[in-house]
Design a protein that fits this description.
By secondary structure, the chain is an alpha/beta fold. Helix content is 47%, strand content 16%. It is elongated and about 100 Å long.
């Protein structure tokens, strides 16, 4: 679009008089104003003071619109019309920040930058600042991308290994500040690559909540699951046995060790821990399970409660032994999820208390999308293709529903056993 004579003369004046800091801002202001005026002329059917048979309405003054750009704040005059409503497509209603700064604000939010620092960032880029509500409104545009990622199909490949865990954050709900779980599922595909399968937020880690989450993964095409790793939360294990029938369940050895050491005095904790760790140092399947019996027998006299815990958890704690030996260190705990949990917490701790569960899910999902994309772009596999080939045919120990513990009704908090 060619600028008119008046605009060209104004540009020439700017070039001669403006200093380096204000030059780009004033140039951008002239260009934006010219574009708005050109769009208004097309909408009205005639230019300013122009007589035309194509005219559909008349100008009726202007109203100022402050637009924050990377070059600074600009005041654009938007023509008003006597009939009809005109608003330039170049600008967005109720938005005072341009597209470039929108992207900056959203990325800063996802990176865990506080609202105050986002405000400082906008000021540093030439703007006049931004409120918390404005940051929240801008970042709500991430919901579309998050929804597409959370509902994507998972049937492109089998996932023999699935890891499940949760972390907790503060959310304002019904006028109260409550703790809500961010549950995360990751998987190792048949070619040895990791993917973040999904995430959700809920009131607690109840069986009903986990069952709904896992069924959603199955409905999206998650298949070929041979082993699921998690802690021993009763609601979670009941959900796993219901949704992933025919799969094994590996009780996280790290969570189990924490449960054991809670029963032991501090002076004996190192000795007990070292003794239990010998179970995981055995070279084969039979040796691993035999060592559980041996360790339980050794600890019976001084630590009968620990010995009973080992005996009760034997099948769940040693499920990893049914799988290829090169995989053992990667599948006998949920440690691969701990780094993700820490990153989610690092970003969410900046916010502190989220205004609603949707805001918590938005930020958590964005963090997980970043991790997922990094895994896909990396040439490094979590498990080698050669070792993954050893899974065919699989020989997992099928997880049986626990009949000695009553199932808890939906939506009722279940005390964790982990």
């Amino acid at each position: 679009m060619a600028l008119d004579q008046h605009a060209l003369l104004e540009l020439n004046e700017i070039m001669q008089s403006a200093d380096e800091n204000s030059l780009m801002r004033r140039l951008l202001g002239v260009i934006l104003q010219a574009l708005v005026d050109a769009e208004a002329t097309a909408f009205i059917g005639a230019g300013l003071h122009e007589r035309s048979e194509d005219r559909t309405t008349q100008r009726n003054g202007t109203r100022d619109k402050v637009v924050t750009t990377a070059a600074g704040d600009l005041t654009i005059k938007i023509p008003k019309t006597r009939t009809g409503s005109f608003y330039p497509a170049l600008l967005s209603p109720r938005r005072r920040i341009d597209v470039a700064l929108h992207a900056v604000v959203m990325q800063a939010y996802v990176e865990g930058v506080s609202t105050r620092r986002v405000d400082d960032l906008v000021v540093a880029m030439g703007g006049t600042g931004i409120s918390k509500s404005e940051v929240s409104r801008i970042c709500a545009q991430l919901d579309v991308e998050v929804a597409l990622w959370r509902t994507r199909s998972l049937d492109h490949i089998a996932f023999p290994y699935v890891f499940l865990d949760a972390t907790y954050c503060k959310v304002r709900l019904a006028g109260r500040v409550v703790s809500q779980a961010v549950v995360i599922a990751t998987g190792v595909s048949a070619d040895g690559r990791r993917e973040v399968l999904g995430c959700a937020t809920g009131d607690s880690e109840t069986e009903a909540f986990w069952t709904e989450f896992l069924r959603e993964l199955r409905e999206r095409g998650l298949g070929g699951v041979q082993l699921v790793m998690s802690d021993a939360h009763r609601g979670l294990t009941n959900a796993i046995s219901a949704v992933f029938q025919g799969s094994s369940w590996q009780r996280c050895r790290v969570h189990f060790m924490r449960n054991v050491l809670a029963k032991v005095s501090k002076g004996h904790s190192e000795m007990v821990a070292a003794t239990i760790r010998t179970i995981f140092a055995q070279p084969g399947q039979a040796e691993v399970r035999a060592q559980v019996d041996l360790v339980a027998k050794m600890l019976t006299g001084q630590f009968p409660a620990v010995a009973q815990m080992l005996t009760d958890a034997k099948a769940d704690l040693t499920a990893f032994a049914d799988f290829p030996h090169p995989h053992w260190r990667k599948i006998w705990s949920t440690n691969p999820l701990e780094r993700l949990n820490r990153e989610v917490k690092r970003r969410t701790d900046v916010v502190g208390i989220f205004p609603n569960p949707a805001a918590l899910l938005r930020l958590s999902a964005c963090v997980l999308i970043e991790a997922h994309d990094e895994w896909q772009d990396s040439d490094r596999r979590y498990l080698s293709e050669e070792s993954m080939a050893l899974l065919n045919p699989p020989t997992p120990t099928v997880l049986q529903p626990k009949t000695n513990t009553p199932r808890t009704a939906p939506n009722k908090e279940i005390a964790a056993t982990a």
